[in-house]
Write a structure and sequence with these properties.
single chain, elongated, 638 residues
């Protein structure tokens, strides 16, 4: 297997520092562009109490793109050897043991054992990791521990026998003291007490042997030995406390890492139902309980994920006040027991976001030290729900603000343009209705004014209706493969009919392909762009050209007007937006309609300033689909 395709193998345990191993494996896989595998080796033959925490780390590795595997093996080294050879891994990442006791360094580490097996794999040890080969071994009191205890005492007695004949019997005491201390550290306090009793018997036996019976009176030596054993018991107590503190630190590290994973997962949630599913999953794995979130809904509760763990829960009007005051001495995070379930208020900054319902698997409930972390989980969940609520409120406020702005802009923009033609029509009609005689030329001028202002008013209202239908999707684009020059000719004919000849230069290549488009909409697009160019560059020459790129056809309308001020290149496509120096005419809808038409075709439009002055509007339309085949020539046709 080629090296770039050989995977990175990461050995994971249940400890919190496994998260750092996952991150190291992910970074290494990214650097080498190689796949990576997260593997856990179970050496006990059956799942341990930390198996669910292992699943948390494995799923985190899977989320980062790793393949996950769980193996059964007699020893950690053997399991990793089989995994390494089976996957042909190029690198194996291990964690370093944090055991710093001197005698723990005498034995070979897992990494050394793997190196002796001659694996064709580079082994890297991460300092922040943990060694899984000996988890909580000091609690074992089985047959192996008994054999180990007797072996250590036998070795100690052998060393004591090697004390010189003329030596002091007190030199034997440190040997047994070291043996008892080692047994206390390695196999626990119970076997250490047994070792103390056996050490006393062995010591008494040594005093009766001819080798040491000249060492002095036995009773003072025996009392001194017992005092030393009591000191050993004190040392064992200290070791036991240190062990407990180390386990507590490890437990807190696991909880902190779990809280970090929960916060990161909640940060990616986009709805309260998703928050409920993620929160219930993390709580179930960390605390081994069932959980769900409850939200008030129409006088009852809505569970996420459904169903509720206790259908007989009091209604929100009754339960929420009990969670907020009174029964918990003013602590809103103190759990409230209701039958077999517990309820915690998800209190936000200004109100309760819901209720966290917990159902322990054990009838005895949860230990007291667990509730502190569970409260921290509740705070994280409440913050996530509050964030979603604020985002929704901000979105609604933004929509309302935008609606109000659009309403004000619409009234301000259209008010003047509606009043002007209406005032002209009203004035002309009033003049025609006067009883005095009106000359024929004046009457024709007034009627022409009425017609022009009516067309202007109809054009304004038509633009509003067209934009509304385009943005709402009421107008469906009817694409057909058509030559672009026909659409351009139709748009120019429409403008010249109304305004006469245009100062326009047209550049359309003969080899331009057919384009899938809605002819009526693209014609309106060209009319709007040319009208906009005429308004900002009256009397100036304009350019209209088109060209083809792979997969697209581009159309450009350019003028030699004042150009677009810096920073307004995108804003000019907003509805009712007009440049500050724009003169009379128009309400800022033409370019907005152009963008809506182009987006309906799946294309893009942008504006930029031309070198030498003026502005350029470029439209890109996609050539999606297969164009129709050209018609076959008819036989005999000239």
């Amino acid at each position: 297997m080629d090296a770039p395709h050989r995977p990175i193998l990461v050995a994971l345990g249940s400890e919190a520092r496994a998260l750092r191993l996952i991150q190291a494996g992910f970074r290494l896989a990214q650097e080498r562009s190689a796949p990576w595998i997260a593997v856990h080796v179970e050496t006990g033959g059956h799942p341990t109490e930390d198996s669910e925490q292992v699943q948390v780390w494995l799923q985190e590795a899977q989320r980062l793109g790793a393949e996950i595997r769980v193996l059964q093996a007699p020893t950690l080294a053997q399991g990793l050897t089989e995994a390494t050879r089976g996957t042909h891994a190029q690198v194996l990442l291990l964690g370093r043991s944090r055991d710093r006791w001197p005698w723990a360094r005498v034995g070979h580490s897992t990494a050394n054992e793997l190196l002796r097996r001659g694996l064709d794999t580079r082994i890297e040890v991460v300092d922040e990791g943990l060694n899984q080969s000996q988890p909580h071994a000091f609690h074992s009191t089985g047959f192996g521990a008994m054999v180990g205890t007797l072996s250590v005492l036998a070795a100690s007695s052998g060393l004591a026998w090697l004390v010189p004949r003329e030596g002091n019997i007190a030199m034997v005491l440190p040997v047994y003291l070291a043996a008892v201390t080692f047994i206390a550290h390695r196999w626990g306090q119970g076997l250490a007490v047994l070792a103390s009793v056996l050490s006393t018997l062995f010591y008494s036996f040594l005093l009766e042997t001819p080798r040491f019976n000249q060492g002095g009176a036995p009773w003072p030596n025996l009392l001194f030995f017992l005092a030393m054993l009591l000191a050993a018991q004190a040392v064992m107590g200290l070791l036991h406390r240190l062990r407990q503190q180390a386990r507590e630190v490890q437990r807190r590290e696991v909880h902190t890492a779990s809280l970090y994973l929960l916060g990161r997962a909640l940060a990616r949630c986009s709805g309260i139902d998703q928050v409920g599913v993620i929160a219930a999953e993390h709580i179930r794995r960390v605390f081994k309980v069932e959980a769900c979130l409850l939200f008030p809904a129409q006088g009852g509760w809505r569970a996420a994920p459904p169903p509720s763990l206790d259908p007989g829960l009091p209604p929100p009007a009754e339960l929420l006040p009990r969670l907020e005051v009174g029964e918990r001495l003013g602590d809103p995070l103190e759990p409230l027991a209701l039958g077999r379930t517990y309820c915690l208020s998800l209190s936000g900054t200004d109100r309760s976001e819901g209720v966290l319902q917990i159902l322990p698997r054990d009838a005895a409930g949860l230990p007291s030290e667990t509730w502190e972390l569970l409260k921290a989980f509740a705070v994280q969940i409440a913050l996530a729900l509050e964030r979603l609520r604020w985002l929704e409120e901000a979105r609604k406020a933004q929509v309302e603000s935008e609606t109000e702005r659009m309403r004000s802009t619409l009234l301000g923009a259209i008010g003047h343009d509606l009043r002007t033609p209406l005032a002209a029509i009203h004035g002309a009609a009033g003049t025609l209705l006067l009883p005095s005689e009106v000359s024929e030329s004046t009457r024709r001028d007034l009627l022409s004014m009425i017609q022009d202002e009516s067309e202007r008013l109809a054009h304004l209202l038509g633009n509003l209706l067209d934009l509304t239908r385009l943005e709402s999707g009421a107008i469906h684009v009817q694409k057909e493969w058509q030559p672009l020059e026909e659409v351009v000719g139709s748009a120019l004919g429409r403008l010249e009919k109304r305004q006469g000849p245009l100062p326009l230069r047209v550049d359309l290549p003969e080899a331009l392909p057919l384009v899938p488009l809605d002819a009526a909409l693209i014609e309106q697009l060209l009319v709007n762009l040319l009208t906009n160019a005429q308004r900002h560059a009256p009397g100036q020459a304009m350019d209209l050209r088109a060209w083809e790129d792979p997969g697209r056809v581009h159309i450009e309308v350019a003028d030699r007007g004042p150009g677009i001020p810096e920073g307004f290149e995108e804003r000019i496509f907003d509805k009712f937006f007009r440049l500050p120096e724009a003169g009379e005419g128009g309400v800022g809808l033409g370019l907005a309609i152009c963008r809506a038409i182009v987006q309906a075709h799946g294309g893009t439009i942008h504006a930029e300033n031309r070198p030498g002055g003026g502005s350029s509007f470029r439209v890109a339309l996609p050539l999606d689909g297969i164009p129709p085949a050209p018609p076959e020539p008819v036989e005999g046709a000239l």
